[in-house]
Amino acid sequence: MTAESLTAAANAYRQPAPPPQLPLLQLPGRHQDPLFDDGSGAGPSCPHRRQWPGRGDHAPTADTTLRTARLSDAELDGMVGDMAVLVRREYDCWVEACWTEAFHHVFTRTIPTFLITLIVAGASPSFMRRQIVHGGPALDEIFMADMLDNLYSELERRLSGKLMPDVRGESSSMATAAAAIGAGGLGAQPTTTPGLPRDGVCTHDLGPAHGAPADDDDHAACLCQLAACPACLHDAAHSRKAPVGLLPFELSGTPVAAGWAGVVETEEQARDREFGSSSTRPARRDPPETALPVGKGFVHHPKKVPTPSRPPIFPHPQMTDVLAVEEHLRWRLKELGAVDPSVESRYGPSTNAPAALEGLERALRLDEDDGSEANAPNGHGGGGGKNGRKLAVGRSKARFNKAVKAPPKPKAEKKKVYLPVEWAEADPAVRNMAIVLTFRHFVKLLHQAAVTSSPFSYAGYSKDVAALASVHPVALYRRLTEATATRKGRPARETRAWIECMDKWTEELGAREKAAGNVLVNSGQHFDAVKCYTRAISLDGKKTVYYSNRAVALNTLGKHVAAEADCVHILNKDAKNSKAFYQRAVARRGLERWREAETDLKHVLRLQPGNEAAKTLLAKVKVEVAKLPKQRLEDVLNF
User: Fold this and answer.
1) Of the candidates 31, 100, 140, which has an alpha carbon nearest to the alpha carbon of residue 315?
2) Residues 548-591: pLDDT tens digits?
3) Keyword Nucleus: yes or no (predicted)?
4) Number of neighbours of residue 289 by Cβ within 10 angstroms
5) Which of 237, 248, 433, 465 could bridge 85 with an S-S bond, Cβ 3.0-4.6 Å?
């Protein structure tokens, strides 16, 4: 047997390879190096000689001496401030991680889909090489602007925890994310938060220094452990890894810069970011002839000091990843009808795989009915019988007799060609060269747009940071670490102890914020009191008294809509809460909804007949109700 015959026999049994896989994203870890490391690795190295309690070794929940009571007010305030620094740095670094994920998504999915869309629209190989790759700076600017919009869109989708197509305007900003972590009006406390960092908070910088095993890199340290040494917590929080990117120059004078731990962009770097490409830079003016020295044929221009380069958040994609995406793109084109023997020899003939059509629904108009036989109700062109079988009726002497014929043999279905004929039948070498050149040109533009921009320039960053500041740092820390502390594989005893201990911490800190809010209300500082009550709600959203106290402060400030929302939340949980009825009546009176305020005050007097404040307010409301036109029966019944 010859080698050719052996090869032919082997090809008859060879199975096509599965579709090529896109490269995976490898995010850098958020590992923190030990704060105090003497190199010996033996025992704790804390200068204060304090040790952490072991996992699960927490004080009983009935004992309050080992929670906030064991710290002085100054130490407790310092610990809360340090937790705020830690959470802010975690958030800023998480924004950079989402920026990296957004870049990877645009690199592996958005650009190939856009390239196929150009082909479907009629772009030939020569057009892609001449008009796109060598289209000039003006066309490159258009592509870079569109890529930058895609980057920020993908970034905000990840920040909001929604990896579905969604438009998130400036007004919503962090509102959805804040509600998810308990900062909203309802103070919800979900067990998992999709939009927050997925690996907890690394405390390896503190653990080994306070007796924790060196190989125990726990990302869900209990607050009892962190509070064991407030001095070391302060040092660790302020020496924690900062974000690599630059804070935009336009945010340098805003409250956002107060808690920023990285480097702030200079004015010159901001100007270079604004004029990212050479074609948009101001044209260099040639010196006038009068500026030339007498008898000299040249003029000396001082050497311009180069602008400091921006630190890269991520490098350019590796060539192996670029080749992997190009191979996946060639497979998609083969599935769309492009004739390519080399690709078909590896992955088999075209099957119109749904994965190859992903993202091309609008370009290919897949939702429209093409009226072909394949779309017939039974899946065959003319079959009208059950399960594709034809029923033939024969005439016998006595009665009608039905004879069932065998189903027809299915015909080989011809795969649909979605690409233009000139592209599908073009020379594979010419076509692949155009694909490679265009894709790599787009990747270059994408990387240039990403490195010359800042992930912190998205529209809602300032509002996001403000929403984070309105939540208690311990509540945020719990949201960040709860998924790690309750993950599968962790001992049940440790999980229960962690939850009970954090519940006790949040309960005591919530009561502390409530007491501070009450002091501020008594001194007339209602705006600051609202902040305290909001922080208390983020810690323990089950306590309705926090909502009622905040409703009082909001009504005093004239924010009646927000006060009414708090009262509605209370009454959904406790329908007999007279204080909530009264405050909602006050809010509705401020909104001039007199009849609804009258109804609420009647509820108050039904629950508390001796409430003099409700009687006085009801008398005032009745005067305004009497001025209103009489209601018709249709209006009362809401017809």
Assistant:
1) 100
2) 999 999 999 999 999 999 999 999 999 999 999 999 999 999 99
3) no
4) 7
5) 237
Distance CA(86)–CA(88), nearest Å, equals 6
- Which residue stretches of 131-244 are H helix? 137-159, 175-180, 223-226, 230-238
Using one digit for the tens of pLDDT, what is the confidence trace for 589-624?
Answer: 999 999 999 999 999 999 999 999 999 999 999 999
Q: Is 590 exposed, middle or buried (0-12, 13-18, 19+ CB in 10 A)?
A: middle
Cβ atoms of 571 and 544 closer than 8 Å: no
Of 265, 264, 262, 258, the residue nearest 84 (C-alpha)? 258
pLDDT for residue 635 is more than 90? no
How are beta strands 391-395 and 400-404 bridged, if at all? antiparallel
| Backbone phi and psi for residue 394, each to the nearest 5 degrees, phi listed first | -110, 155
pLDDT for 69: 80
Q: What is the DSSP string of 21-57?
A: PPPPP-PPP-----SS--SS--S---TT---PPPTT-
Phi, psi of 290 (to 5 degrees): -70, -15
- How far lies 24's CA from each of 105, 420, 491, in Å? 10, 32, 31
Q: Is the pTM of this model over 0.85?
A: no
For 151-173, letters b (16+ CB in 10 Å) and e give bbbbbbbbbbeeeeeeebeeebb
The residues spanned by each domain of the chain are 543-639
What contacts 341, CB < 8 A, 6 or more positions away?
Answer: 428
CA distance 37 to 20: 46
Query: What CA–CA distance (Å, rounded) separates 540 from 508?
Result: 9
Q: Please say whether the beta carbons of 603 and 588 come within 8 A.
A: no
Q: At the topology level of CATH, where does 543-639 sit?
A: 1.25.40
Q: Which residue has the tokens 């062109």?
A: 381
Cα 53 to chain centroid distance, Å, stands at 35
Three-state DSSP state, 632: coil
- Whose tokens are 């108050």? That residue is 604
What is the amino acid identity at position 298? F
- Distance separating alpha carbons of residues 266 and 625, to the nearest angstrom: 61
Q: What are phi and psi of 616, to 5 degrees?
A: -65, -45
CA distance 554 to 270: 40
